[in-house]
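DM from R.C. (forwarded with permission)

"hey, sorry to bug you on a friday — could you get me a structure for this? deadline for the figure draft is monday and I only need the backbone to look sensible"
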Amino acid sequence: MKYLILFFLSICLVGCSSSKKEQPSKPNIIFIMSDDHAYQAISAYDDTLINTPNIDRIAKEGMLFTNASVTNSICAPSRAVILTGKHSHINGKIDNLSEFDTTNVTFPQLLQKAGYQTAMFGKLHFGNNPKGFDEFMILPGQGEYYNPTFITQKGDTVIQGYVTDITTDLTLDWMKKRRDPKKPFMLMYLHKAPHRSWLPTKKYYTEYTKKTFPLPATLFDDYKTRGTAAKTAEMGILKHMTLVYDNKLTPETMAELGIEDWNNIPPRLGDMNPQQKADWEAVYNPINEDFKKRYPTMNDSTLTVWKYQRYMQDYLATIASVDDNVGRLLDYLDEEKLTDNTLIVYTSDQGFYLGEHGWFDKRFMYNESFKTPLLIKWPNKISAGITENEMVQNLDFAQTFLEVAGVKAPEDMQGESLVPLLTGKKETWDRDAIYYHYYEYPAEHAVKRHYGIATKEFKIIHFYYDVDEWELYDRKKDPKEINNVYNDPNYASVVKEMTQKLKDVRKKYKDSETLDNHYIELYNQ
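My reply, with the result:
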């Protein structure tokens, strides 16, 4: 009898031991993306404008990519590329207006099929019923900063509060209450901020409206060597950033000063409740009064600087909230001992101009909108504190996540898995050029259609549709991309080489003049 009891006890102990060790063998994946977050506004890249200690943690404990870029610098197409692993001309989502073809196979669908629990919270930007997710709560379209509506599988719901905090609350609620600890998970945690019109939370607009920021070196760029596209784009801080919608002056202030603005519509403060609006007005009304005193003595230069400072105050304040909330998620993962088996990515759907070349917004293949922040940590796989300068793109995420999960990627995906770079097998990485194609013209901001390639040394761009103009930049000697050297005799051999390489890359990715014309016809319908 004694031995029988010991036998059963030993079985129980073995059972208890195995249940304790029962953890998902595949790594969890958390994809964090903000909207229009410039790499210049992350202190791991540059601490001139802001400190982002929580986002920086991902780089300090993992890898910082200095040469990450997008294939098409505009919100919805970038997200379609990320989900499908295919360029815009292949997945069909070329701009913010075109429908997303839901017959596209996305990496969340493949991970879900492979046994991953999947969830999405925040801003998708297109589609009300994303495929491949066990649970989602997403903003309709752009969504609102205050008291936003969320689309769910059970219907729409309005949640009181600030969108960056709410998105994190929803994410953590899922992690705590509905995550299956026996399954690996893939979580998409997607922030609306810092998208225009840059409405911060009280904590940070109170602080940041008192700050003054250094001016970018190219704030007063004259585009001397550039072609028509740079000279005619409608994203200038002086002429195209609106005093009301963007800089938060009131229509009453404008009327009192006799200023005409092409867009005299205020940002959507109507979504604020009375207390939120009173808090807002307590800070922004004095800004209006101060502007009334300053305006009579302003010229174009001083007005540009004033608008730039107001832009930075609000834009960076929204990022401060993102950083706080990324910290909340990272802390939770540490507390629950989930960090060691979780791949974490922080990125943006594209870069953004923070006054460089006198601009705001994105769209161009010039660095500030073409490049995007990318920070990845994967404990026990990525050595901490590494900086990686290989050229990678948002095109690569789908295949990366599939390889991490041990899932075979479809043959028609066009990216390359980043796993060799993440795991110290850089010698197998052989990409020497990346491809870019922007379509949305004529449209808001009037950035002309263009495509091009970039290597580490050079960038060649072809503007087409209603112009036929070429630009070439020496990325080593001219990192601010001020001097177009396409017609410089000293670069004739480079032009020839890059033009041929562009043809080869377009062929590789199955893009062509035939497709260019096809999408032009669709856009003109």
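R.C.: lifesaver. The first helix runs from residue 2 to 20.
me: no worries. The radius of gyration is 24 Å.
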